Amino acid sequence: MNYRFAGRMKRVPESFLGELFRVSAVPGVISFAGGLPASDCIDVDGIAEAARQVFAEEGRTALQYSTTDGYLPLREFIADRYRRRLGLPATADEIQIVNGSQQSLDLAAKIFIDPGDAVGMERPGYLGAIEAFSFYEPVFHAVPLEEDGPDLAVFESVIRDHAPGLFYGIPNSQNPSGTTYSDRKRRAVAEILEGSETVFYEDDAFGELFFDGRPRVPVKRYIPEQTLISGSFSKIIAPGMRIGWIYAPAPILREFNLAKQAADLHSNLLCQAILNRYLRTHDLDGHVRRVAAVYGEHCRLMCDLLDDLMPAGMTHTRPEGGIFLTAALPRGVSSMEVFHDGVREGVAVLPGVPFYVDGGGKETIRLNFSAVGAEEIVEGMHRLARVMHRLV
Amino acid sequence: MNYRFAGRMKRVPESFLGELFRVSAVPGVISFAGGLPASDCIDVDGIAEAARQVFAEEGRTALQYSTTDGYLPLREFIADRYRRRLGLPATADEIQIVNGSQQSLDLAAKIFIDPGDAVGMERPGYLGAIEAFSFYEPVFHAVPLEEDGPDLAVFESVIRDHAPGLFYGIPNSQNPSGTTYSDRKRRAVAEILEGSETVFYEDDAFGELFFDGRPRVPVKRYIPEQTLISGSFSKIIAPGMRIGWIYAPAPILREFNLAKQAADLHSNLLCQAILNRYLRTHDLDGHVRRVAAVYGEHCRLMCDLLDDLMPAGMTHTRPEGGIFLTAALPRGVSSMEVFHDGVREGVAVLPGVPFYVDGGGKETIRLNFSAVGAEEIVEGMHRLARVMHRLV
């Protein structure tokens, strides 16, 4: 039978990612290609105990249907943390629970993007956002990321000339680059946006994971009515429960709620209740500090090995937090070659290609330093070095 | 600030449902308005024990990221059940896990519907489908439901004249009517569809809940390549975990998987693992038989009371399964009046209005018989009878 799919399906970027992950899932391959948190950093016993309490004390309600906005005690916890940690005057009414940050991307695109609408992004930009947005057929305008945030001249011209409905950015430890916006650029971004019709989509998946433990001021602080923040427990507690949230002004949240209801009624209540119980019986600050310390060590180790082992002309970012860095390859070496030769050598990296909406990424690779341990980082970097020296 | 939302947001049906549920959530109100399974029918202890085993034996993997298609053992269980119960040659490769049936609706619309595309539905049609589809801006063509399924002449003319990309139906114990397609109409629907470009979306949320325990032959049996089936554990195990699935031909499932990945990467793995463990250590057939028996008794009780207590001119459907029936009001009585007077009297019903894409429903109400116990059904029907006698 000849199936007649919607036109938008042709706009979805070629999913060579699935292929990459299949290829790199060979036993023995050390993978820097994914984005998993360290399994050792997931407190399985603590979460199991929280689950036991939920079943014992509120099992029957936690297994029933619930409201679209999400489990109130969890939304209160999140709002309270914004108030205490970042000085943002959040209330539970401004929080909507979603299935991890990825669903925030889909729903935001659904409520904001008509086919042909302009959408601003960083260059390189997060591939999950590119994928989610593409279903709504926008025209992307990419703003180059510099060491301390977006190129402000290009950013200003995108906002002025194209009036995007959304600008999507990750100011804290960006995926894929690992870059963090400076305070100056946060203010400048807010000033340029002020008075425009562009909503700033501030993806904050990594803000809790700065190696120095110091929170950075969100752009939302400067233009609260014009910013929505998305957050997630995937990187700090556990991704398998698929619980994230959006924190947005009431008029945006209203549309968001409609879209969420139509998308899947509500996020799974059992995991919301388990997470809430876990968060209220454990020291999240301490947990996050321990996780960030582990990732900080991994990151320093990886950076040192890149400096020591790789051929001349290969450079890399130096993240202050998060789980990714990006390396630029020596002239003439292609990221797809590094990927294919790498898998044969037993090390997987992610070519930069899917992070670019306008071509590019052929000379960069993304490296993840959270999923694998120190020993594997050492061995994996030596394997990568052999590949690189062969290719230059 | 003036937010610039996408055009599709204006196409979303007025959500008076939220308002209705708020109004009817007054303490003391007996609600026939919702669609919850009986809380007593949820095996909290069994699910808690399954969760304990998952944490003990596979906690670390169940809390990590996973693949978009879903947890393989659960998909195998579902496929195996299709083979044994309905004689459909399903394999795990043809199953995609989603967040309850509602997400199947959203994703199917996303992959099949361009703005302005024709979509066929039953009249009345399931409001969750109307909501989900509306975001993709289709033109709805509604086919009247008769006692034994769709009006075949209208069905045929919709398929021939409008060539919808999708026809969405609920052959088993439809929501809201409670109607079940006869075998004759299932075959006729398949024959009319054969050779057309229309995919039949066979929503099977209630197929396990026939009061006589006898499975009905799915339309997919007759036109397998042209039918996708959606199913859900919400009505038979527990809705709070938000686990459903789609069973579709490979070319459809491929697009579905792309859309699911962009929408939220994957459904929560922890609940998939818990459900799988529960299903493999419990007697699902026995459980479903017990639940269907309870709902069957509730349904007969409600039907008897409607016959005995309501004024002349009020009629109702006689479901063979599921959790809903629809009552037609005596001439001149409006469903919104019954709703408002009902809440004052302490009983909530759902006006038929949101189930019609082309006006209608002002003279019908949907009644749910799963969420409340027998005593409440008796008391609630007496309250409703007082309202009805006042209004005629």
TrEMBL record, chains A, B:
Keyword annotations from UniProtKB, A to Z: Aminotransferase, Pyridoxal phosphate, Transferase
Cofactors (names): pyridoxal 5'-phosphate
Top-level lineage group: Archaea
Cited Gene3D superfamilies: Aspartate Aminotransferase, domain 1 (3.90.1150.10), Type I PLP-dependent aspartate aminotransferase-like (Major domain) (3.40.640.10)
InterPro entries, per database record: Aminotransferase_I/II_large, Class-I_PLP-dep_aminotransf, PyrdxlP-dep_Trfase, PyrdxlP-dep_Trfase_major, PyrdxlP-dep_Trfase_small
Statement: the UniProt record of this protein carries the keyword Transferase: yes
Transmembrane segments: none
Residue ranges occupied by any Aminotransferase class I/classII large domain in the UniProt entry: 44-383
Entry keyword GTP-binding: no
One GO term of the biological process aspect: alpha-amino acid metabolic process
GO MF annotation: an example: transaminase activity
Protein name, UniProt field: PLP-dependent aminotransferase family protein
Organism: Methanoculleus receptaculi
